[in-house]
Design brief:
The complex is a heterotrimer of chains A (about 270), B (about 450) and C (about 325).
Chain A lengths: L12 E10 L2 E11 L4 E5 L6 H8 L7 E6 L11 E4 L13 H6 L14 H13 L15 H13 L5 E5 L7 H16 L3 E5 L6 H4 L2 E6 L1 E7 H4 L2 H8 L3 H16 L11
Parallel strand pairs in A: 3-7, 3-8, 5-6, 6-7
Antiparallel strand pairs in A: 1-2, 1-4, 8-9
Helix pairs in contact in A: 3-4, 4-5
Chain B lengths: L5 H4 L1 H26 L5 H23 L5 H26 L4 H22 L5 H12 L7 H20 L1 H9 L1 H6 L4 H23 L4 H13 L5 H32 L2 H4 L8 H19 L5 H27 L4 E3 H6 L5 H13 L3 E4 L2 E4 L1 H24 L7 H8 L5 H11 L18
Antiparallel strand pairs in B: 1-3, 2-3
Helix pairs in contact in B: 2-7, 2-10, 2-11, 2-12, 3-4, 3-5, 3-6, 3-10, 3-11, 4-5, 4-10, 6-10, 7-10, 11-12, 11-14, 12-14, 15-17, 15-18, 18-19, 18-20
Chain C lengths: L13 H16 L8 H25 L3 H25 L5 H4 L2 H25 L4 H23 L5 H7 L7 H20 L1 H9 L1 H6 L4 H40 L5 H30 L5 H19 L5 H4 L1 H11 L1
Helix pairs in contact in C: 1-12, 2-8, 2-11, 2-12, 3-5, 3-6, 3-11, 5-6, 5-11, 7-11, 8-11, 11-12, 11-13, 12-13
The chains are: A alpha/beta (about 270), B mainly alpha (about 450), C mainly alpha (about 325).
C-alpha cells in the first residue's frame, strides 16, 4: 500500500519524555516519539505493558508525572474537539437502556452545549455514520441486543460522528467477526485518504504488517517507533515481548510495594 | 462495678452474654467466608429478609397459638423468610438481568417493608406482641434465657462442625471456583451450603443485635481478622475471637453504663434519658475494633505502612549519603560542606542522617570531616554495584539509551532485593563495566 | 367553622376513596376552597416523594450505586440525631420540635452524605479494603452509633421504629412543601444535565475524554440522593426509601429500552404505588379495621407491581417465556 505521510515538521503526535506513575512507580517511562499525520499506527506490547495507559494519558484522562504531549501542535485540552476516542468494549455496561442511535449521538455531547439537545440535524448525521458502518437498520435497537462485532461498529460510528482529525482506539479488533473487521479496515482507509491519523492498540502480532503503516512498540518504555516496514523486525519484537522483561516486571512490582508501605518478603541484608 | 465472671454465672446476665457471644462467633466465622467472596452485603439483605417471617410468626402465635410456641416459630419463620429472600435475589439476577446491588437492595427493602406492614397489623390490637416484633429491629439481648443459650449453642456447634468438616472444600470454592469445578468438586453444592450457613447465623443473630444491624457482625470481625493474617485458618480464629470479644463487651458496656447512670445523677444532667442498648453497642464495639485493625495491624495496617514508607525514605537518604562519600573520597575524609552541597536537603535532615550512619557504624566523624568505615565502604560499593548492574540491564537487555538510564537507576538501587540482584547477575553474566564504562563493584567486595 | 376533626375519607372503601378524591379535586378546581384532609396530605407527600425517588433511583440503579444509597439512608439517622442533640442541648430555643426545621435538616443531610461518601472512599481507596466491606462497615457502625444516641438522649422509644418506617399519619401540610421543593430540585437538575448524567453513567471513559467529569456527576447524584432521602424520611422512613428508589425503576425497566421513557415510567409506577397504597390503607382501616402502616402498604404495592411486570413484560415476561406461548407462536407461524 502506498501513502504519503506529511513530513515530521507538523506531526500529529509529539511526545517528549513522558513518564506516568502508579503508586510512585513509573509504569510508562520516559517515552519520546513523534508520529506524522495521515498514518495508521499500531500500538503493540504485551499485557500490562501500559498500552491503554499510554492512550489514556494522551487523551488527558491520566495525568503524567513529567513530560509533554502535543497533538496537532497543541495540548490535548485545547484540541479536544479534534480528537475521538473509542474505549474498550468491556469498559461499558451494554445493558444500559439506550438504542444504537442514542449511543452514536453521545459522540456529539462534547460539541452540544450544557443544556442543548440532539435535534433532527444531529439525528440525520447519526444515521449517516451508521450507514457507513452498515448498522443503519439497527438504529432503534437496544444495545444489549447487539453482537460483539455490532457493538464495536456502533462504537466506531460514535467516534466517526465527531468528525475528528485524530482517532484513538483501544483493541477494536478484539473478538469481532470478519464482516466487522472488513468494515473497520475500510473505514480506516477512508479516513486516511482524508488525511486523518488513527492510533490503534492492537493485540494480534500476525496482522500488524498487513494493517498498519507505523508501529509503536511498548513495554513500559518505548522499544521502538517507526514505519512498520523498517522497525517491525523479529529482534525488536523479541525485545518487546521477550523474557528479559520479566525482571523489569518484578522490579516494578517491588517498587510499587515499597512505595505503598507493604513489606517486601526479602529485605536488604545489613552488611 | 460487676465482676466479669458474674456475666457468665449470674442467671440474669449469663444468657444475654453467652448468647450474644455464641451468635457473634458464628457470624464472624461465616462472615470470613462471605468476606473472602466479596459478598459482604448479602448479609444485609438476608437479615432484613427475615423480618416478614418474624412478624408473621408472632402474628400467628398471638392470634392462634399460645406463648410457648413463640421462640421456635420465630426461628422457623425467620429461616424460611430469609431463604425466600435468597432465592429472590438469585432469581432476579439470573432471569431478569438485575444487577447484584439492585437485586440485593430491592429484596432488602421489599421484604422488610412487607414485614413492617404485617407488624403494623398488630400494632394496636396486640401491643405486647407488637413490642416483641419491634424488639427484633435492634435486638433485645436482655430477654434471652438459658433456653436461648442452648439453642444458639447447638446452632453454633452445627455451623462450626459443618465448616470444619468441609473446610477444604469451602476454601477452594472460595478461592478459585473454576479450578474447583475442574477437580470435580460440586461448587454449587458448597455455595448453597455456605448460603445456608449464612441464613442460620443471621437467624441466630437477630435476637441480640436485631435485623437492622445484623450484617455488621458478618463484616467487621472478618475485615478486622483479614488484617492480621494471610492464612485462612488463622483468619477464622482471629475473627472468632474478635466476634466473641465484641459480643461480650457490648453486653458489658451497656450493662455497666446503665448501672452507672442509675447510681449517679450525671445522666439526667447531660440530657441522657434512656440507656445504652445492647445490640447497637455490640456493633459499635466490633466496628471500632475493625477500624483500629485497619489502621494499626502490624503488616497491613495504614499506620505501619506509612511508617514503613518513612523508614524507606530514611534508608534511601542514608544510602545516598554513603554513595556520595564513596564517590568523593572512598578511602579518606570528606568535608561536611561537600556532602551538603551535593544533596538538596535541609542541613538538619542531613545531620540527623549522618548521626544515624555513625550510630550504625558505617561512618566515622571527626569534627567537620566524615569518613567511611570498612563496613560503610562495603555497603556503599554494594549500592553502586546495584546501580550499575541495573543500568547494564536497561541498556543491554531492554535497549534503552545510555543517557536515559541513570535517573531510574538512582531510584532502583534502593529497591533491588538480594534475590533480584542474583537474577540480574545471572542474566547479565556478571558484567564488569556499566554503560558509562565505569567499573562495577564485585559482590561482597569493597 | 367545624370544630373537631372531619375526614371525608373515613369509612371509605377502596373505590369510594377514588370517587371522593375526584369529587374533591373537581370542586377544588372549580374554585371551592377546601381544607386538605389528612389522607390527601399523605397522598400528596407520598406521591411527590415517590416521583423524586424514582428519578434519583433510575440513575442510582444504572450506576450500580444502590448500596451506597442504602448506606446513605442509614447514616442519615446519625446526622439527624446529631443535629437534634445539638439543637436540644447547645442551642437555646423555645420549642425544639418546631426548630427542627428544614435548613437544619438539609445541613444534617448533606453533612452525613459527605461523611458517608468520604469514609467509604477512604476505606476503599486509602486503606484498600474491598468495596463491599467498606460500605457495609461504614453504614452499620454509624447507624448503630445513631441508634445509641437516639436511645440515650430521647425518651421517645418510638423514634427507633419511626426512623425505619416513617410516620405517615404525622404528616403535615409543611411536609408537602418540602416534598415539592425536593422534587423541583431533582427535576431541574435532571433536565438540565440529562445528557451529562446519561453519558457519565454509560461510558465514564468517553465522558471524561469529552470533558464531562464523571466524578462531578457522581457527587451531584449523591447530593441529590441525600436530599431526597432526607425529604422522604418523615414520610416513609429510611428503609422504605430504598424500596421507592429501586422498585419502580426495576419495574419500568421491564417495559422500556429508552432512558427517557424509563425515567417517566418509573415515576408513574412510583406515583401509582403511592396512590393505591394510600387508598388501600384507608380501605383496610374502613373495612377490616386494620390500621396498617401506609408506608408498608405502599412498599407491598410496589412489590405487587413488580410481580405483575414480571408476568406481563414484553421482553422477559413469564408469559412470553412460557412453554405454551412459544408453542402458540410456533403454531401460528405457518
Amino acid at each position: 500500500m502506498t501513502f504519503e505521510p506529511t513530513s515530521l515538521e507538523h506531526p500529529c503526535l509529539k511526545v517528549s519524555q513522558l513518564t506516568v506513575n502508579y503508586d510512585k512507580t513509573p509504569v510508562l517511562w520516559d517515552l519520546t516519539l513523534t508520529i506524522p499525520k495521515g498514518v495508521l499506527v499500531g500500538i503493540i506490547g504485551p499485557n500490562g505493558a501500559g498500552k491503554s495507559t499510554f492512550l489514556k494519558t494522551i487523551l488527558g484522562l491520566i495525568k503524567p508525572i513529567s513530560g509533554r504531549i502535543e497533538i496537532l501542535g497543541n495540548s490535548i485540552r485545547k484540541n479536544k474537539k479534534r480528537v475521538a476516542y473509542v474505549p474498550q468494549r468491556e469498559s461499558v455496561d451494554w445493558d444500559f437502556p439506550i438504542t444504537v442511535l442514542d449511543l452514536v449521538l453521545m459522540g456529539l455531547y462534547g460539541k452540544l452545549g450544557l443544556c442543548c439537545y440532539a435535534g433532527k440535524r444531529e439525528r440525520e448525521q447519526a444515521l449517516k455514520v451508521l450507514a457507513k458502518v452498515e448498522m443503519d437498520s439497527y438504529a432503534h435497537r437496544q444495545i444489549s441486543q447487539l453482537s460483539g462485532g455490532q457493538q464495536q461498529r456502533a462504537f466506531l460510528a460514535r467516534a466517526l460522528i465527531q468528525d475528528a482529525d485524530v482517532y484513538f482506539m483501544d483493541e477494536p479488533f478484539a473478538g469481532v467477526d470478519i464482516t466487522t473487521s472488513r468494515i473497520i479496515l475500510s473505514i480506516f482507509h477512508e479516513l486516511k485518504t482524508q488525511g486523518k491519523t488513527i492510533f490503534v492498540v492492537h493485540h494480534d502480532l500476525e496482522t500488524v504488517k498487513n494493517t498498519f503503516d507505523w508501529v509503536i512498540m511498548l513495554n513500559m518504555r518505548l522499544v521502538v517507533c517507526g514505519e512498520v516496514a523498517k522497525v517491525f523486525t523479529p529482534e525488536l519484537v523479541h525485545r518487546t515481548f521477550g523474557k528479559e522483561n520479566i525482571l523489569l516486571d518484578e522490579a516494578t512490582r517491588l517498587s510499587q510495594e515499597t512505595f505503598s508501605g507493604i513489606s517486601t518478603n526479602s529485605h536488604m541484608t545489613d552488611q | 462495678m460487676t465482676a466479669i465472671y458474674h456475666y457468665f454465672t449470674d442467671p440474669i446476665l449469663r444468657a444475654p452474654t453467652i448468647g450474644s457471644m455464641l451468635m457473634c462467633l458464628t457470624a464472624a466465622l461465616v462472615g470470613v467466608l462471605v468476606f473472602l467472596r466479596k459478598r459482604s452485603l448479602l448479609g444485609e439483605t438476608l437479615s432484613h429478609a427475615t423480618y416478614p417471617g418474624v412478624t408473621l410468626a408472632v402474628v400467628i402465635v398471638a392470634t392462634m397459638l399460645s406463648e410457648e410456641w413463640l421462640a421456635p416459630f420465630i426461628l422457623v419463620g425467620a429461616f424460611i423468610s430469609s431463604l425466600l429472600g435468597l432465592f429472590a435475589v438469585d432469581a432476579l439476577k439470573k432471569y431478569f438481568n438485575v444487577r447484584d446491588d439492585s437485586a440485593l437492595c430491592f429484596v432488602l427493602a421489599s421484604f422488610f417493608g412487607i414485614g413492617l406492614t404485617i407488624a403494623s397489623r398488630v400494632q394496636f390490637s396486640h401491643p405486647q406482641e407488637y413490642r416483641q416484633i419491634q424488639s427484633y429491629l435492634y435486638g433485645q439481648a436482655a430477654t434471652m434465657t438459658d433456653f436461648h443459650i442452648l439453642l444458639y449453642g447447638v446452632l453454633s456447634i452445627l455451623v462450626i462442625a459443618i465448616g470444619a468438616l468441609f473446610y477444604k472444600e469451602f476454601k477452594i470454592t472460595t478461592f478459585d471456583a473454576n479450578y474447583a469445578k475442574s477437580l470435580g468438586i460440586g461448587v454449587r453444592l458448597f455455595d448453597s451450603l455456605l448460603f445456608l450457613l449464612i441464613v442460620i447465623s443471621v437467624v441466630v443473630g437477630i435476637k441480640s443485635v436485631g435485623v437492622v444491624l445484623m450484617s455488621a457482625m458478618l463484616i467487621a470481625p472478618a475485615a478486622a481478622a483479614r488484617q492480621f493474617s494471610n492464612r485462612m485458618s488463622r483468619i477464622l480464629l482471629i475473627a472468632g475471637i474478635i466476634g466473641m470479644v465484641s459480643g461480650f463487651l457490648g453486653n458489658y458496656l451497656s450493662n455497666e453504663f446503665s448501672i452507672y447512670l442509675a447510681e449517679s445523677n450525671r445522666g439526667i444532667q447531660g440530657g441522657i434519658r434512656g440507656s445504652l442498648p445492647t445490640g447497637p453497642s455490640i456493633v459499635v464495639v466490633s466496628g471500632t475494633i475493625c477500624f483500629l485493625s485497619l489502621l494499626f495491624a502490624p503488616e497491613r495496617g495504614l499506620i505501619p505502612r506509612y511508617i514503613r514508607i518513612a523508614f524507606f525514605r530514611l534508608r534511601r537518604l542514608e544510602e545516598n549519603l554513603l554513595k556520595t562519600v564513596w564517590r568523593i573520597n572512598l578511602d579518606g575524609e570528606v568535608e561536611l560542606s561537600e556532602i551538603l552541597s551535593s544533596h538538596s536537603r535541609s542541613k538538619t535532615s542531613l545531620q540527623l542522617c549522618l548521626w544515624k550512619l555513625k550510630w550504625d557504624g558505617l561512618v566515622s566523624k571527626r569534627g567537620k570531616k566524615v569518613a567511611l568505615t570498612s563496613k560503610g565502604r562495603k555497603k556503599a560499593s554494594h549500592i553502586v554495584r546495584l546501580h550499575r548492574l541495573w543500568e547494564v540491564y536497561l541498556v543491554n537487555s531492554l535497549g534503552l539509551g545510555v543517557e536515559r538510564v541513570h535517573r531510574n537507576a538512582e531510584e532502583m538501587e534502593h529497591i533491588i532485593t538480594p534475590d533480584l540482584e542474583k537474577k540480574l547477575t545471572e542474566l547479565l553474566e556478571d558484567p564488569l563495566e556499566d554503560p558509562h564504562k565505569q567499573p562495577i563493584p564485585r559482590n561482597g567486595g569493597a | 367553622m367545624l370544630i373537631g376533626y372531619y375526614n371525608p375519607y373515613s369509612s371509605a372503601t377502596f373505590l369510594d376513596f377514588f370517587t371522593t378524591l375526584l369529587k374533591r379535586v373537581g370542586s377544588w378546581i372549580t374554585g371551592h376552597a377546601l381544607e386538605m384532609a389528612s389522607d390527601e396530605i399523605q397522598l400528596a407527600v407520598l406521591t411527590l416523594v415517590a416521583i423524586s425517588c424514582a428519578l434519583v433511583g433510575t440513575f442510582l440503579v444504572l450506576r450500580k450505586m444502590t448500596m451506597l444509597a442504602n448506606a446513605l439512608s442509614h447514616t442519615i439517622l446519625l446526622g439527624i440525631v446529631a443535629a437534634y442533640i445539638i439543637l436540644m442541648n447547645f442551642v437555646a430555643v423555645e420549642n425544639p420540635e418546631e426548630a427542627f426545621n428544614v435548613p437544619f435538616l438539609i445541613i444534617a443531610a448533606l453533612c452525613t452524605g459527605l461523611l458517608t461518601t468520604f469514609l467509604t472512599e477512604f476505606l476503599s481507596k486509602v486503606i484498600k479494603l474491598q468495596e463491599d466491606a467498606s460500605i457495609g462497615l461504614v453504614f452499620t457502625t454509624l447507624f448503630a452509633l445513631g441508634v445509641i444516641l437516639v436511645t440515650l438522649f430521647t425518651r421517645n422509644v418510638h423514634i427507633g421504629t419511626e426512623i425505619v418506617m416513617g410516620n405517615v399519619d404525622a404528616l403535615k401540610k409543611s411536609d408537602i412543601q418540602i416534598a415539592v421543593s425536593v422534587l423541583l430540585i431533582n427535576m431541574i437538575f435532571f433536565t438540565l444535565f440529562f445528557k451529562e448524567f446519561k453519558i457519565s453513567t454509560f461510558d465514564s471513559n468517553l465522558s471524561k475524554a469529552l470533558g464531562i467529569s464523571p466524578i462531578f456527576f457522581n457527587y451531584l447524584l449523591m447530593v441529590l440522593a441525600s436530599l431526597t432521602t432526607v425529604g422522604a424520611f418523615r414520610a416513609v422512613g429510611v428503609l422504605m426509601v430504598l424500596a421507592l428508589i429501586t422498585g419502580p425503576v426495576l419495574t419500568a425497566r421491564l417495559f422500556t429500552h429508552r432512558l427517557g421513557t424509563l425515567l417517566a415510567l418509573s415515576s408513574l409506577v412510583g406515583f401509582l404505588a403511592s396512590l393505591f397504597g394510600v387508598a388501600l390503607s384507608r380501605h383496610f382501616l374502613t373495612v377490616y379495621h386494620l390500621p396498617l402502616s401506609t408506608g408498608g402498604v405502599v412498599v407491598t404495592v410496589i412489590v405487587f407491581f413488580y410481580l405483575l411486570a414480571i408476568v406481563f413484560s414484553p421482553y422477559k415476561g413469564l408469559i412470553k417465556r412460557s412453554f405454551y406461548y412459544r408453542k402458540f407462536q410456533l403454531m401460528h407461524k405457518k
